[in-house]
Automatic annotation (TrEMBL):
<dbReference type="InterPro" id="IPR000383">
    <property type="entry name" value="Xaa-Pro-like_dom"/>
</dbReference>
<dbReference type="InterPro" id="IPR005674">
    <property type="entry name" value="CocE/Ser_esterase"/>
</dbReference>
<dbReference type="Pfam" id="PF02129">
    <property type="entry name" value="Peptidase_S15"/>
</dbReference>
<dbReference type="InterPro" id="IPR013736">
    <property type="entry name" value="Xaa-Pro_dipept_C"/>
</dbReference>
<dbReference type="Pfam" id="PF08530">
    <property type="entry name" value="PepX_C"/>
</dbReference>
<dbReference type="InterPro" id="IPR029058">
    <property type="entry name" value="AB_hydrolase_fold"/>
</dbReference>
<protein>
    <submittedName>
        <fullName>Putative peptidase</fullName>
    </submittedName>
</protein>
<dbReference type="GO" id="GO:0008239">
    <property type="term" value="F:dipeptidyl-peptidase activity"/>
</dbReference>
<keyword id="KW-0378">Hydrolase</keyword>
<feature type="domain" description="Xaa-Pro dipeptidyl-peptidase C-terminal">
    <location>
        <begin position="189"/>
        <end position="443"/>
    </location>
</feature>
<dbReference type="InterPro" id="IPR008979">
    <property type="entry name" value="Galactose-bd-like_sf"/>
</dbReference>
């Protein structure tokens, strides 16, 4: 069986109950974790899923759906946006934007609950194809990690520097990344020839073929994501080269301080690149945020973005896995959001995004139901970013931006507690980030060793 995106979703639904006549699957850019696709720590991915709703509503309108999508991004309360702009309810979309808690009945029944339990029951060899910038990546990786050992050993997972269309995008070059063939025909044909005709397979099975960004090469991870060691960079004060800036250091400083900024929901930080974006694919009228890795704004461009810069690196830092940002924060409102963006700053000063993440205070630290927050209280939040394979090169700097919005990748938090889609009013919030010591830091999974590093793909026996 073979099909991309939605058609891979169809395969997932039946993957645990296939007859013996089905010998192999090719699954690409589709996973089994709908909740995690829609929400990161209580924050809804508007660019991807509001655009998808308007592109697939099947409602005939006089106005272009892309123009309606743009209006929907700014509508408050968002819950009624379907009736206001399309003239009728979209029940499935209302379910998405109303069920923020993973403990809601909506996520405990039906196809979304069923999909979560399918990967451990898959016994058919699978060729999986995903992209570092695809909005399904997180769900694909989690599904792969749940495969039975025997299934993983007979399968292969390819992750390239691609967006949902399985092509590269953005401002960086990705040499030797065009290996799939049109519509993945080359890779799928080789897989089926092997599984159905018994022909030799030119690549290793049982692991992940990962494209290492900034190295321009492929690496085989034999048993999933490789062994790594944690390397922390601490947020601390320093000489302000730019307004609202600090330093990133490998050693925690002895001085503890606080940095404050004002977050106004009516003036959100615009999305500039990243993973999990989709509106761009529906056509020019959607004016979707550009995906992948893009050149970023200069530090100090906004007063509500706090930038931390490391010194030039003395050696490469090979990130392979899930980056975690640990922030100690407070706010003068009952609920709000905090964002983090990781970048590589090239020696020429240009910065390019590696990964970004977000968390509300209500759903901090992966909470499955809303947590209380008392205004003014300092709390520790952990934001786990999606996996990535990216080597920050010697001579580059690491840059971390902290703020409170990333729009339209995520909805704009109104600084009001309660279900986000029901809120009509917004408040301006005073946000505080505690730095120095080990109060706030970013933890990188750094590769211990490089294995099977030669060639575009690593062939069996090489």
């Amino acid at each position: 069986m073979w099909g991309r995106s939605y058609l891979s979703g169809v395969q997932w639904v039946m993957a645990d109950q296939l007859p013996p006549e089905v010998k192999a699957l090719v699954l690409s850019v589709n996973g089994t974790e709908r909740y995690r696709q829609l929400y990161m720590n209580g924050m809804f991915r508007q660019d991807a899923f509001t655009s998808w709703a308007f592109a697939n509503s099947e409602v005939k309108t006089r106005q272009d759906p892309g123009e309606l999508y743009q209006q929907a991004l700014y509508a408050r309360p968002h819950l009624d946006v379907d009736v206001k702009l399309l003239g009728q309810e979209l029940p499935w979309y209302r379910e998405w934007i109303s069920n923020v808690s993973r403990e809601g009945e909506y996520w405990k029944r039906g196809v979304w609950n069923m999909l979560q339990h399918i990967p451990p029951q898959v016994h058919t060899p699978v060729l999986m194809v995903g992209g570092w910038y695809d909005h399904n990546l997180d769900g694909m990786i989690r599904a792969y990690e749940q495969f039975p050992e025997q299934t993983r050993a007979a399968s292969r997972f390819v992750i390239g520097p691609w967006i949902h269309a399985l092509e590269s995008s953005g401002d960086l070059d990705y040499p030797d990344s065009d290996v799939l063939g049109t519509f993945t025909i080359k890779q799928a044909t080789e897989w089926f020839d092997h599984q159905l005709k018994g022909q030799s397979y030119p690549y290793r099975k049982g692991g992940i073929d990962a494209y290492i960004i900034r190295e321009g090469r492929w690496q085989v991870w034999d048993r999933g994501f490789p062994q790594t060691q944690k390397q922390a960079y601490y947020l601390c004060s320093g000489q302000e080269v730019y307004p609202s800036s600090g330093q990133l250091t490998s050693e925690a400083s002895s001085t503890q301080e606080r940095i404050s900024y004002t977050y106004n929901p009516d003036n959100p930080v615009p999305t500039q690149g990243g993973e999990g974006l989709l509106a761009f694919s529906f056509g020019p009228t959607y004016h979707g945020a550009a995906p992948s890795s893009l050149k970023q704004a200069e530090p100090g461009s906004r007063a509500d973005v706090i930038t931390f810069l490391s010194a030039p690196l003395q050696a490469d830092v090979a990130i392979q896995g899930r980056i975690k940002a640990h922030l100690r924060v407070s706010s003068d409102v009952d609920d709000t959001a905090f964002t983090v963006k990781l970048m590589e700053v090239f020696p020429n000063g240009n910065a390019y995004n590696i990964r970004d993440g977000i968390s509300s205070l209500a759903y901090r630290n992966g909470a499955t139901r809303p947590q209380d927050y008392v205004a003014g209280e300092a709390v520790d939040i952990e934001i786990e970013l999606w996996p990535i394979a990216w080597t920050i090169k010697q001579g580059s700097r690491i840059r971390v931006d902290v703020s409170s919005s990333n729009f339209p990748a995520y909805y704009v938090h109104p600084n009001v507690s309660g279900p986000w889609a029901e809120q009509q009013q917004v408040r301006i919030a005073q946000q505080t980030l505690s730095i120095g010591g080990a109060q706030s830091y970013v933890e990188f999974p750094v590769a211990v060793a490089s294995l099977h590093a030669d060639g575009i793909f690593t062939a069996e026996g090489s």
